[in-house]
Amino acid sequence: MPLRLPDKLPAIEILKKENIFVMDETRAHSQEIRPLKIVILNLMPLKITTETDLIRLLSNTPLQLEINFMRLKTHIPKNTPVEHMVMFYKDFDELRNHKFDGMIVTGAPVETLEFEDVEYWEEVKGIFDWARTHVTSTLYICWAAQAALYHFYGIPKYPLKKKMFGIFRSRILDPLLPIFRGFDDVFYMPQSRHTEVHREDIDKVPDLQIIAESKESGVTVVMSRNGRDFYLTGHLEYAPYTLDKEYKRDFGKRNDVDIPKNYYIDNDPHNKPLVTWRSSANLFYSNWINYYVYQETPYNIEDIK
């Protein structure tokens, strides 16, 4: 089934060229189907790119999804046209009285700041609290994962001497969990971050379960509340050339960024990336939608609590 997206969203034409079936709101209203309502709080600087990456993964399901985009009132994006934000995004005040089957909170380019020093920290904390009573299951990605773990459980983050940058193999710790249905024993996840969380801090919290980790990149996926919250330290949603663009952007400008590990063929940045995470990314998002959203959410969305 297709995704229901706002009319004229740029991702629609991009994904149609990839033969991904998406549907704008005008056509979707003609179908008598109760779609799953998904809200995305997009904190990434290149919002159109992130929209497209996430929609690409969410499209790999037989269920119809209605996608909503949330923006912050306390932050004005610098890398996305104002017209785009006005046309496709709603701020929290416009959405706070609604309930959603699923929510995704993206990473943000503020990880080297203390959480309390982030200009929108108070607003984000309010959204995190709201999600616990208005959303069936939430995915927190990269900085959002660290921020939510800190907000809810007091888990600190630690600075890295070098950016954790590349594609890293993770081992599944509980293969019987539905989120890992169809996975091999190991999978690969892109990482792009300057900070990390530590296993020993997470292990002290009974409500938190580390369900995947990597020898190189540390904790990979954490789950809480029986799957109502997932915390991903990396970026399964990344497109093949995202790390390449980040590397070429920072090359010669920063001294804490090396060539992304396990990424380029023969470890040569003149070569193409070797894509090793796409199948697990599609599986992860499909399993999340199916087992933790669709099969857990009430038929009457207002019954979410």
Automatic annotation (TrEMBL):
- Tell me which residues are marked as the site Important for acyl-CoA specificity: 111
Q: Which residues form a coiled coil?
A: none
Q: Which GO terms describe its molecular function?
A: homoserine O-succinyltransferase activity
Q: List, alphabetically, the InterPro entries matched.
A: Class_I_gatase-like, HST_MetA, MetA_family
Pfam families according to UniProt:
HTS
The UniProt catalytic activity note for this protein reads: L-homoserine + acetyl-CoA = O-acetyl-L-homoserine + CoA
Site, Important for substrate specificity: residue positions: 192
The keyword Nucleotide-binding is assigned to this record: no
Enumerate the active-site residues.
Answer: 142, 235, 237
Subcellular localization, per the record? Answer: Cytoplasm
Return the PANTHER family for the record: HOMOSERINE O-SUCCINYLTRANSFERASE
What biological function has been recorded for the protein in this entry? Answer: Transfers an acetyl group from acetyl-CoA to L-homoserine, forming acetyl-L-homoserine.
Task: Kindly provide the name given to this protein in its UniProt entry.
Answer: Homoserine O-acetyltransferase
The organism is Segatella cerevisiae
